[in-house]
Design brief:
Distance between the termini: 72 Å
Number of helices: 14
Structural class: alpha/beta
CATH superfamily of the largest domain: Aldehyde Dehydrogenase, Chain A, domain 1
CATH topology of the largest domain: Aldehyde Dehydrogenase, Chain A, domain 1
CATH class of the largest domain: Alpha Beta
Strand order of the largest sheet: 14-15-16-13-12-18-19
Oligomer: single chain
Helix content: 25-40%
Radius of gyration: 23 Å
Number of strands: 22
Length: 478
């Protein structure tokens, strides 16, 4: 298959390599070079900022019906192009085609939701005595600088673009250099759907250079970032210099509570699939399995047998259930974390090693009896490794779940309705899944607490995160 032409998009123009520095994009399944991606210089970023300022002046005056029409048309174009876009995403990111097809539809569903929700942004009028009144309304926040990682190259781009476009903002999107063509496909769908060329720009570059340049400009009024907690904290400091609005979706270390009264087989089927989706490179991935002692052996053995049976291979190949990791850094990180844990006494039940001699494949891995002091118990592994430990009772299990400063997603499996309510209240996470692996939906907010960030994407809350509230007080009388 033909991969894609790599470029940036500024003012509707495909900006190619020219004199610019470049990043080599590779296929993670083979290590083969896919192309050279141009990296923005200061002049490119200044141009993108100037265009975004013009784009905001244009798009803030659009009607909600115009915005909805663009989003719906873009969604329709993505459906038409689904197979081609999915193949591009698999080629540059690695996950199986079944997952990239679902990711295209994730963007379709999000755009469709925002097309309706942007027409339901309501203010209110507060009557006062003597004919006076106060009116509360909402306006677009302004040009948005949006940064997204490589793990969901389509979904992350859609999240960063959907709410700003729906609310009347302009966007400068900086997605990961490892997976540029996916992001470009989403931006291009919006432009082909009639979005003014000034409203959405796509740039790539040295991350620290781009973030400092964009966030140092008064044109940018909001930062939206998905990525690691370390980088997120750095970007928040940059944004604070100009008091820019921030939405931060940062790291996690998803706890999973397995109680003795749970449907163990159902929990295993759901959690193994969720754990090894996208080779574990998911911010909401279930990672620390906190299992009640009486069912620990049953759960561990069932998990190990399922993990060992997963078919790992090229995401473009028929029957592949898990593809390679997205870049060469990830297998290196997995090896170091696993070796340290085993050295401290953890039991390696399956996996723990690279697969093959090309690409970035790593075997689905299960560690059990992992000491709490191991780095992997405290740092997000972001890979295909599950950590399974026994605990004695509800209080100890909840304490372990809340032990870390992360609070993105948490999971619990129990048939006790009262316990479900207790656990939902007690778990310190922005999103909680009870007896399910589903943790996100276009009409529900995607959010974390503590070191996992703040603000919201998706749902009505994601829309309001791109707006500012204004109140106008009017006197009565003649």
């Amino acid at each position: 298959m033909r991969y894609a032409d790599l470029h940036m998009i500024i003012d509707g123009e495909a900006v190619g390599l020219g004199h610019r520095r470049s990043h080599t994009v590779v296929n993670p399944a083979t290590g083969a070079v896919l192309g050279q991606l141009p990296l923005a210089d200061a002049a490119d970023l200044d141009r993108a900022l100037e265009v975004a300022a013009r784009g905001f002046a244009i798009w803030r005056e659009s009607t909600v019906q115009q915005r909805a029409a663009v989003l719906l048309r873009a969604a329709a174009l993505l459906v038409e192009r689904k197979e081609a876009i999915a193949r591009i995403a698999t080629t540059e990111q690695g996950k199986p085609l079944a997952e990239t097809r679902m990711e295209v539809m994730m963007v379709v569903n999000l755009f469709t939701f925002y097309a309706g929700e942007c027409q339901r942004v309501y203010g209110r009028v507060l009557p006062r005595s003597g004919g006076a009144r106060s009116t509360v309304g909402h306006e677009p926040v302004g040009p948005v600088a949006a940064f997204a990682p490589w793990n969901f190259p389509l979904g992350n781009a859609g999240r960063k673009l959907g709410a700003p476009v729906a609310t009347g903002c302009s966007v400068i999107l900086k997605c990961a250099e490892e997976t540029p063509a996916s992001a470009l496909a989403v931006v291009q769908a919006l432009l082909d759907a009639g979005l003014p060329r000034e409203v959405a720009q796509a740039v790539f570059g040295v991350p620290d250079e781009v973030s400092r340049h964009l966030l140092g400009s008064p044109i940018i009024r909001k930062l939206s970032f998905t990525g690691s907690t370390v980088v997120g904290k750095h970007l928040m400091k940059l944004a604070a210099e100009d008091c820019k609005r921030t939405t931060m979706e940062l790291g996690g270390h998803g706890p999973v509570l397995i109680f003795a009264d749970a449907d163990i087989e159902r929990a295993l089927d759901a959690m193994v699939a969720a754990k090894f989706r996208n080779a574990g490179q998911v911010c909401v991935s279930p990672t620390r399995f906190i299992v009640e002692e009486s069912v620990f052996a049953q759960f561990r053995d069932g998990f190990v047998s399922r993990a060992a049976a997963i078919r790992v291979g090229d995401g473009l190949a028929e029957g592949t259930q898990m593809g390679p990791m997205a870049n060469p850094r990830r297998p290196d990180a997995m090896e170091a974390l696993i070796a340290e844990a085993v050295g401290l006494g953890a039991k390696l039940d399956t996996g723990g090693e690279r697969i093959g001699n090309q690409g970035f494949f790593f075997a689905p891995t299960v560690l059990s009896q992992v000491p709490v002091a191991a780095r992997i118990m405290n740092e997000e592994p972001f890979g295909p490794v599950a950590l399974i430990n026994p605990f004695a009772g509800e209080a100890a299990m909840i304490a372990e779940a809340n032990r870390l400063p992360y609070g993105l997603a948490a999971y619990a499996w129990t048939s006790d309705a009262k316990r479900q309510q207790r656990v939902a209240r007690a778990l310190e996470a922005g999103m909680i899944a009870l007896n399910t692996g589903a943790i996100a939906a276009p009409d529900a907010p995607f959010c974390g607490i503590k070191w996992s960030g703040h603000g919201h994407e998706d749902g009505p809350e994601g829309l309001m995160a791109c707006m500012v509230t204004k109140v106008v007080h009017e006197g009565g009388g003649a």
